[in-house]
Design goal:
The protein is an alpha+beta fold and 103 residues long. It has a domain of 68 residues: Nuclear Transport Factor 2, Chain: A, CATH 3.10.450.40. Helices cover 30% and strands 24% of the residues. Strands 1-2-3-4 form a four-stranded antiparallel β-sheet, with helices on one face. The longest helix is centred in the N-terminal third of the chain and has 21 residues. The chain starts with a helix and ends in a 13-residue tail after the last strand.
């Protein structure tokens, strides 16, 4: 029974951490309306030009948010201004190695 309680607690903590990670920037990247946003495909092209392998991308809370693999094979999260494609923030410094990109 004790092991079950510990396991449930660990899953709860992991779920909370995932939610916090998704909201990690904590502020919008732009205050312009969605009608001024570039398309998701155009933003993906800008991210790919920087050498990242894109895992997923979406518009969220006034930002374009991308989960990527960098040239060193590390996971990172990038936040772009959806009106210009300029990178506002990213967590490449906290990235974790997942193997070689493209494999």
């Amino acid at each position: 029974m004790r092991k079950l309680i510990i396991a449930i607690s660990l899953f709860g903590v992991a779920g909370t951490m995932a939610d916090a990670h998704a909201e990690s920037l904590g502020r919008p990247c732009t205050d312009k309306p969605e009608s001024a946003y570039l398309s998701l495909d155009a933003l993906k092209a800008k991210v790919a030009e920087q050498g990242y392998e894109i895992r997923s991308g979406e518009f969220k809370n006034g930002c374009a948010e991308f989960y990527v693999i960098d040239k060193a094979g590390k996971r990172a999260e990038l936040f772009l201004d959806p009106t210009s494609g300029v990178t506002v923030s990213g967590d490449a410094a906290k990235a974790e190695t997942v193997g070689k990109a493209g494999k």
